[in-house]
Amino acid sequence: QLQLQESGPGLLKPSETLSLICNVSGGSISSTSYYWGWIRQPPGKGLEWIGSIYYSGSTYYNPSLKSRVTISVDMSKNQFSLKLTSVTAADTAVYYCAREHDNRYFDYWGQGTQVTVSS
Amino acid sequence: DIQMTQSPSSLSASVGDRVTITCRASQSITKYLNWYQQKPGKAPKVLIYAASSLQSGVPSRFSGSGSGTDFTLTISSLQPEDFATYYCQHSYTTPYTFGQGTKLEIK
Q1: Which residue of A60, A77, B24, B49 has the fewest CB atoms within a 10 Å radius of its CB?
Q2: pLDDT value at position A110?
Q3: Cβ contact B97–A64 (<8 Å)
C-alpha cells in the first residue's frame, strides 16, 4: 500500500524559507505513470495546488507561487521536497503531498503537515 | 486561471436522501473534472475522476456526470459516513484549481 508522509518545521518567521519533504513508501517514486504534487489548505479554507514534479525532474508550478517555489525529487531516498521562499502569514496552511495519477487526479495523499508563519 | 464554482456552498440532508452537488467551470474543461471528499482533520480522498469514473474502492452510491463546463456529483442514498466537505478540481490545464467546497451536514 502506497504511503506518503510529510515532514518539516511547523513554525516559521516571516521572510524565512519553508522546506518540506514527502517520503514515499510502498511504491517507487520513479514510476513512469505518476507525477508527485504539493497542495495546501489555509485554515478553514479550500485547496490550492502548488505544483507537481515527475521523477525525471520535470516540474510545473502554480503561476501564483512560481517565483517562490521549487519542487525537487531525490530518487535515491524515494522522496520529493518543497521549498517556498519569503513566507508570510498568508502561507500558513496545512501542506499535503500527493501522487498525481496519469489521468490527472490525486489518488494518494499524505496526512498533511501544519505550517504556521508568525513573528 | 480556470475558476471552479460549486453550488451550494452548504447543504443539510438526511440519511437516505439523494443529494446532488454542482460544479461549474469558467471555460470548457471537457471531462477533466475530479471530485474529492474531505473529513475534518483528514486529507482529501478522490471519489470520481475524469467526470464520471468511479475511483477503485469508492461505493457505487457516488456518481459523477457532465462535460464542458457543467458537472454534478450525486450521492444516491446518503450514509452517515458521507457527511463531509466535497471539492471539485479541474485538471484540464495548469494551474489546477479547486472549487470552494460544499459542506454536507446532517439535517
Answers
A1: A77
A2: 98
A3: no
How many angstroms separate the CA of residue A46 from the nearest CA in chain B?
Answer: 6
Say whether pLDDT at B76 is over 90.
yes
Query: How many Å is the Cα radius of gyration of chain B?
Result: 13
Nearest C-alpha neighbor of A84 from the set A97, A66, A58: A66
Residue with the three cell numbers 479550500: A46
The residue to which cell 494518494 is assigned: A108
Residue A111 is nearest to which of B32, B43, B50, comparing CB atoms? B43
CB contact under 8 A, A46 and B98: yes
Among B49, B94, B101, the residue with its CB nearest the CB of A103 is B49
pLDDT digit string (tens) for B28-44? 999 999 999 999 999 99
Q: Which three cell numbers stand for residue A60?
A: 510545473
Rounded to the nearest 10 degrees, how much is the dihedral formed by the CA atoms of B75, B77, B81, B84? 40
Q: In what order do the strands lie in the sheet with A3-7?
A: A3-7, A18-25, A79-84, A69-74
Nearest to A105 among B91, B95, B99 (CB): B91
How do beta strands A11-12 and A113-117 pair? parallel
Residue A103 clears pLDDT 90, i.e. is over it: no
In sign, the C-alpha dihedral spanning A75, A76, A78, A79 is negative
Q: Residue A32 pLDDT more than 90?
A: no
B49 touches chain A (CB under 8 A): yes
